[in-house]
Design goal:
The chain has 455 residues and is an alpha+beta fold. 28% of the residues lie in helices and 20% in strands. The protein contains 11 helices and 20 strands. The strands form 7 sheets. Strands 1, 2, 8, 9, 10, 11 and 20 form a 7-stranded mixed β-sheet that branches. α2 packs across α10 and α10 crosses α11. The longest helix is centred in the middle third of the chain and has 25 residues. The N and C termini lie far apart (51 Å).
């Protein structure tokens, strides 16, 4: 790749004690917790609002707050969904009913969820930087003998604005971008995709249609016409998931969600994401043409609402002081420095491409936890290996692919985010050194702030 040397002064947009990058489930909770504990906090977000996949991704189910009929995740995330439910903007299921995990998420109204997240941040005193994508990190190497003081120091994040590049400085940073952007830009180690092939899980673009009569949708007719359209090449592999075992009629029953698989998509690469967005909208267009032409009761089918972007399941996983593995997760390892629980089936998706029509677009592995097991997440998985003053939270947490496929969901991300926000405030007392955080004190602080801490 050709390079061009750019030398210019970058104005400082603000200076803070804690800077959280990414306003998804993890970043939202991290920023609110940090500010509630008195730290001057900024929340930096690439898009126009908070919520991540809950809002812009069009996937409003937040799972899972309960496991084996036991409450395992509380704190800011639980407070948030209960406030939404109180005002009529969320549906909290019966956690004691005999339901599958897919029916036990808290479904929220995503426009109101974004509004409530705004208000949580405003009330806590968080400075909001929406439409400020991180373009680079200002960092330096520090080599000192004092524990926790050697390694990579992040001095600020360079953000792109309508006025050009600007710098947001901080003492402690929390990377909750999902893709580990800040950590990667600062030279931290990470893993990406499958170790040998580099393959990552497919993404999904959600859309919600109108113009059909659900009472007229016939499951067998939908299945037959879908199969015929696939054979004619009018629909492509990945336009519906899970294929062939599932039934595309579910797209009408489940609020018309597009259960598609967009493959490949590397969330850590902007060109890959750009190409995926085009392919995803092509998929929506194919489905729309098929429904109008072939599905009885859907002759006036049209997309009404579309996710702001393709939701990414997997990209960078930052290498931390601790590394959460599939074995750790499936055996429900109780880490000594555990800061939260995480409960969801191990859920690794794969994509079907042209020429692989005989493969099912099903999860490579789908393992449910039983016998009362509830896995935990260690604080060390939130601390990049060479970091002095940077924490990670959410999907980019230190873990292998299989464990990550479970801990990446929204409720554990909220819990990790709250833990990172609390840890950042403790680190402020020691020049921002995150490796010196007393985990016993952190666990007590989380309990004082209504979180549920293992042990």
């Amino acid at each position: 790749m050709a390079t061009w040397r750019l030398e210019r002064e970058v104005p400082v947009a603000g200076e803070y004690e804690v800077v959280v990058c990414g306003a998804g489930p993890a970043g939202f909770c991290a920023a609110v917790q940090s500010a509630r504990l008195g730290a001057r906090t900024a929340l930096v977000e690439a898009t126009g609002g908070p919520g991540g996949v809950i809002t812009g991704g069009g996937n409003p189910d937040i799972a899972l707050f309960y496991a084996h009929r036991q409450h395992i995740i509380a704190g800011i995330g639980w407070e948030f969904v209960n406030e939404l439910a109180r005002d009529g903007w969320a549906r909290i299921p019966d956690f004691f009913a005999d339901l599958r995990h897919s029916q036990l998420g808290v479904r929220v109204n995503w426009p109101m969820a974004a509004h409530y997240m705004d208000q949580y941040c405003v009330r806590a005193g968080v400075d909001l930087y929406y439409h400020h994508p991180v373009a680079d990190a200002a960092w330096r190497e520090r080599d000192r003998t004092q524990p926790g003081a050697d390694g990579i120091v992040v001095d600020g994040v360079v953000v792109a604005t309508k006025s050009g590049l600007q710098l947001i400085r901080g003492t402690v940073f929390v990377d909750a971008t999902g893709d580990g952007d800040v950590a990667a830009l600062a030279g931290m180690e990470y893993e990406l995709g499958e170790r040998y092939t580099g393959e990552v899980q497919p993404g999904t673009l959600r859309f919600y249609p109108t113009g059909f009569e659900l009472s007229e949708i016939d499951e067998e007719q939908v299945r037959e016409t879908w199969t015929a359209a696939r054979e004619r090449g009018e629909l492509l592999p990945g336009d519906y998931w899970p294929e062939p075992r599932g039934n595309p009629a579910n797209m009408f029953r489940h609020l018309g969600n597009n259960f598609n698989h967009v493959h490949p998509i590397n969330g850590g690469d902007s060109r890959s994401r750009s190409e995926a967005e085009v392919r995803a909208r092509e998929s929506v267009a194919r489905i729309t043409r098929w429904a109008r032409a072939h599905v009885k009761g859907a002759e006036r089918f049209e997309p009404l609402a579309l996710g702001a972007s393709v939701a990414v399941r997997e990209s960078r996983r930052i290498t931390g002081l601790e590394y959460l593995t599939e074995k750790d997760y499936f055996t429900a390892r109780q880490w000594d420095d555990a800061i939260c629980y995480a409960f969801y089936p191990i859920d690794l998706h794969r994509g079907v491409r042209e020429g692989q029509e005989d493969q099912e677009s099903l999860r490579i592995r789908y393992l449910e936890l039983s016998d009362g097991k509830v896995p935990t997440v260690p604080f060390g998985a939130l601390v990049p290996r060479r970091s002095v003053n940077l924490l990670v939270a959410g999907r980019c947490v230190s873990s292998d692919r299989m464990a990550n496929s479970a801990v990446r969901v929204k409720s554990p991300c909220m819990a990790m985010g709250q833990a990172a926000g609390a840890a950042a405030t403790i680190a402020l007392e020691n020049e921002g050194r995150v490796r010196t955080v007393d985990t016993g004190r952190l666990r007590r602080l989380l309990v004082e702030n209504d979180a549920i801490v293992p042990g």
